[in-house]
Amino acid sequence: MSHRNRIRFQKLTRIEPDTISNTSLNSSVGANVCWTPILASRSGQLISVGLNFKTAAGNHRLAIYSTAGALLGESSSTAVVTGWNNLAISGVSIVANTEYLLALQISSTSAIIYYRGAPTGFWAYKAQVYGAFPATLPAGSTVAAVTPNMRLTYT
Q: What is the count of structural domains for the chain?
């Protein structure tokens, strides 16, 4: 990836999410699998991945991938609610100063997420029917100059 969204966060002594973005821009995701990079500020065990919704509709799934595109963990399908949706993902060790890819899918085009726009935003997406995440992120993705409002929470 030529564009990097390297965001560093202060090391905290309590559980605290590493968060990308926080803005009022919003958009629908449609029938795609989408992903964006995040840099972990410290090491720990993943508890959840979160996505911030302006408008609730349908279900969503969240996942975490290595930068090589290998699936590390994914959530179950869960109904969307307005605001932060933190979906549990277990069994993933997070390593400080390591970049990961946070991925999302939403079953309804009526669900609206918050995001940050250009020039600092970056995400990639590829058409996919809503369901389980692929074991490897698909090639031939489209890159957009936006970053969804997502976060990692880990111990």
A: 1
Are 129 and 42 within 8 A, CB to CB? Answer: no
Over range 70-88, report the average pLDDT. 97
Question: Does residue 103 lie within any of the structural domains?
Answer: yes
Q: Are 105 and 133 in contact (CB under 8 A)?
A: yes
Rg of the chain in Å (alpha carbons): 14
- Amino acid sitting at position 69: G
State how far the Cα of 61 lies from the Cα of 75, in Å rounded to an integer.
6
User: Whole-model pTM?
Assistant: 0.83
Check which CATH number belongs to the domain holding 134 and give it: 2.60.120
> How does pLDDT run across 86-138, given as a tens digit for each residue?
999 999 999 999 999 999 999 998 888 888 765 556 788 899 999 999 999 98
- Domain contains 100: yes
Note whether residue 9 is domain-resident: no
Whole-number Å distance between alpha carbons of 137 and 68? 9
- Reported as a pLDDT band with limits 50, 70 and 90, residue 70 is very high
| 43 domain-assigned | yes
DSSP 138: P
